[in-house]
């Protein structure tokens, strides 16, 4: 190892080694934690196909390669708690249905979404024109005028109500007829450190090793610290 070779050729003072070890330990802890967080990320894959599109008529909201969109025409909605990675709501609003209150129900749902949940929506097949109140709520969620869902336009939305366009996971796509289905993918890092610890401890054997051997740098510094007398080390640590 290059560090070991350099320390052997150019011995450092005990105090310098101790300070370096403390910084290295902090760096290793942060690197390991970030590595585990990324390995526990959620992969989200969304596709919207509408009646005006070519290709196979498929729409989906895949969370970790599992389709969570409930079947049916209209706007499919899935809410994910990105602290735990759990799907907390699944609804599909058939906005072509004879139910005259369906637009109001959709608007009520949008207003009821927890502001820290990740809201995922995609349009499948076709819909009727949305009411003014629903359009206004969508705008509050970061959907622009030219992205409002329309019949035969594919539509995908990913975002958190509390963050809208400043959300790093935010995406809103609306594609016109005959332009093919639209597809959006996101990788979401879990936010909740507690749930992350629980998941990691439960899945230790299934999590691939971090890209470097844990504590390698600390062990290298320890080796050279041992070359110092115990009295010198104690004096430096005071």
TrEMBL record:
Which InterPro entries does this UniProt record tie to the protein? DiOHA_6PGluconate_deHydtase_CS, ILEI/PANDER_dom
Q: Which domain of life is it from?
A: Eukaryota
Stretch forming the signal peptide = none
Coiled-coil residue windows: none
Any idea where the ILEI/PANDER domain is?
74-160
Enumerate the Pfam families for this protein.
ILEI
For this UniProt entry, the molecular function terms from Gene Ontology, in alphabetical order, are:
catalytic activity
What protein is this chain from?
ILEI/PANDER domain-containing protein
This protein's species is Reticulomyxa filosa
